[in-house]
Amino acid sequence: MLKWTVIFLIIALVAGIFGFFGIVEAAASIAKVLFFIFLILFVISLIMGRKKI
């Protein structure tokens, strides 16, 4: 999941350099959503990993 976030972030940066504004907004928003999903899953895995049954 983090891999896809980085890929879309790179696409957004490259598109921003070349001036493709529509692509920049789309790739940046996808990267932002994937980052927050990854962050939430990471926190959940930390919490679940600490529980000993």
Task: Summarize the structure in words.
The chain is mostly helical and 53 residues long. 89% of the residues lie in helices and 0% in strands. It is built from two helices and no strands. The longest helix has 30 residues.
Brief synopsis:
The protein has 53 residues and is mainly α. 89% of the residues lie in helices and 0% in strands. 8% of the residues are buried.
List keywords for this structure.
single chain, 53 residues, mainly alpha, 2 helices
List the helices and strands and how they pair.
Blueprint: H1 2-18, H2 21-50
Helix pairs in contact: 1-2
Oligomer: single chain
Regions with pLDDT < 50 over 5+ consecutive residues? none
Total strands: 0
Instruction: Name the overall outline.
Output: rod-shaped
Quick check: average pLDDT? 82
Order of helices and strands: HH
How does the major sheet shape up? none
Report the total helices. Answer: 2
Rg, Å, rounded = 15 Å
| Helicity range | over 70%
**Beta-strand residue percentage:** under 5%
Terminus-to-terminus distance: 28 Å
Structural class per helix/strand content? mainly alpha
